[in-house]
UniProtKB/TrEMBL annotation:
Alphabetized InterPro entries for the sequence: Bet_v_I/MLP, Plant_def-hormone_signal, START-like_dom_sf
Domain Bet v I/Major latex protein, residue spans: 1-154
Taxonomic lineage from the root: Eukaryota, Viridiplantae, Streptophyta, Embryophyta, Tracheophyta
Origin: domain of life: Eukaryota
Protein name: S-norcoclaurine synthase 2-like
Presence of keyword Kinase: no
One GO CC term on file: nucleus
Family indicated by similarity: Belongs to the BetVI family.
Length: 158
């Protein structure tokens, strides 16, 4: 069974500023510091933020999903401002998922305006399809909302 969830949020900053946060390891540091009630720890296991970078995410208990998993950066397109990660160990894979991918896309809207589009794509084995209910865009939406506030506070004056 294949599924998808999406979330979009307009940001009041240029696409390049949003990409500097979402397209790099900075988003992990931001979440760990600003939203510890969602994600307790983001550990870089291997890599420098490019394709192949491996992270271990440890979630706060009671967030509704897995307690931890490892994810790998599988695609980074700087020109199109797209970053994709896939769970490669633990978490959703232990719940019968064969694919759990998150895509961050920064879309330029104007000089000081952009959109963050977050997409979750997943495949789950037929016998585990009830576990698809664990998929939620809510945590990523909360991260995007907090990032919007952070980016606006740190916006460079014109």
């Amino acid at each position: 069974m294949f599924g998808e969830a999406e979330y979009e949020l307009e940001l009041n900053v240029a696409a390049g500023e949003a990409w500097d946060l979402f397209g790099t390891l900075e988003i992990g540091k931001f979440v760990e510091q600003q939203l510890p009630h969602l994600i307790q720890k983001v550990e870089v296991i291997e890599g420098d933020g490019g394709v192949g970078t491996l992270l271990k995410l440890t979630f706060e208990l009671g967030t509704g999903g897995p307690n931890s998993y490892k994810e790998k950066f599988t695609k980074i397109d700087i020109e199109k401002r797209i970053k994709e990660t896939e769970v490669v160990e633990g978490g959703y894979l232990e719940l019968g998922f064969t694919l759990f991918r998150v895509r961050f896309e920064i879309i330029e809207k104007g000089v000081d305006s952009s959109i963050i589009k977050i997409t979750i794509e997943y495949e789950v084995k037929e016998e585990a399809k009830a576990n698809a209910s664990f998929v939620s865009i809510n945590t990523l939406a909360e991260i995007a909302e907090a990032a919007k506030i952070h980016l606006n506070k740190n916006k460079a004056p014109n």
